[in-house]
Design a protein that fits this description.
CATH superfamily of the largest domain: GAF domain
Distance between the termini: 47 Å
Largest sheet: 6 strands, antiparallel
CATH architecture of the largest domain: 2-Layer Sandwich
Structural class: alpha+beta
Order of helices and strands: HEHHEEHEEEHHHEEEHH
Number of strands: 9
Number of domains: 2
CATH class of the largest domain: Alpha Beta
Helix content: 40-55%
């Protein structure tokens, strides 16, 4: 990590002892040179993380900015979001006894942020935090298809396809066809595109504003696949995704459009 960033964090930590601090107090608490503190405080103030409180020209202190409250609210929302997700994931896992995963979009990659494993002797194992390109796997493809057209265009202009398995999508034409299919169906299916000998199925999770914030998915071994099994899995994920979205404030009428 950048040394300047670490020093800036050290300055922010100083406010855990007192809500308002003078420049001299920050220097004393941080054990950093005055010139360094002045430079970093100026940068933090410009970024809205620190606010200057000027009573007189000689009485100037600093306090934490409301920008930090915004960040704190975002973190809190993410924690609450995962708390809400787990009961739906557990129920889906109990109904199907298959791997259930929750995936989000970050920096043009899909990230598996939560999962509940199957108890079957032969099963797929996905590590939490694992990243995937957006053209491989049911959840990544779903998140890609749910991008707005500008973001999708920007992604397609820079993506470089890597052959992960023999079934991985490897051309713009095939990917565009797949995106259209997902948008039409409202869900995504993967046939051993990212994980060998595995089928994946994913539905979107919507927030109260109608934005797709995650993909709820199930993965099964190819050996367990049948058309009848697919129908059961899709219906179970659909209901779980719908109930989760409703709990997040999404309106049922939108889900039926």
């Amino acid at each position: 990590m950048s040394q300047s960033l670490l020093k800036a964090i050290k300055i922010l930590d100083c406010f855990s002892t007192k809500s308002q601090l003078s420049l001299i107090e920050i220097v004393e608490l941080s054990n950093l040179p005055k010139t360094t503190v002045f430079r970093l405080v100026s940068s933090l103030e410009e970024g809205g993380l620190i606010v200057k409180v000027k009573k007189t020209s000689h009485d100037v202190t600093f306090r934490l900015g409301l920008k930090l409250l915004e960040y704190g609210n975002l973190v809190n929302e993410q924690i609450e979001y995962l708390k809400l997700a787990l009961p739906h994931m557990r129920k889906l896992n109990e109904e199907l006894n298959e791997l259930v995963h929750l995936t989000v979009l970050e920096n043009n990659e899909a990230v598996y942020i939560e999962k509940i494993d199957s108890t079957k002797p032969v099963r797929l194992v996905i590590e939490k935090g694992r990243r995937s390109p957006l053209y491989a796997g049911s959840a990544p493809k779903l998140l890609l298809a749910k991008m707005d057209d500008i973001s999708l265009h920007n992604y397609l202009s820079v993506v470089a396809f890597e052959k992960i398995t023999k079934n991985t999508i490897k051309s713009f034409e095939d990917l565009k066809i797949e995106i259209q299919k997902i948008r039409k169906n409202g869900y995504s299916i993967s046939r051993a595109e990212h994980f060998k000998d595995t089928m994946g199925f994913s539905f979107p999770i919507y927030d109260s504003n109608g934005n797709t914030i995650a993909a709820l998915g199930v993965s099964i071994p190819l050996t367990d696949y049948s058309e009848e099994r697919e129908k059961v899995i899709l219906e179970n994920i659909r209901m779980s995704a719908q109930n989760f979205s409703l709990e997040l404030g999404y309106k049922l009428i939108k889900l039926q459009d």
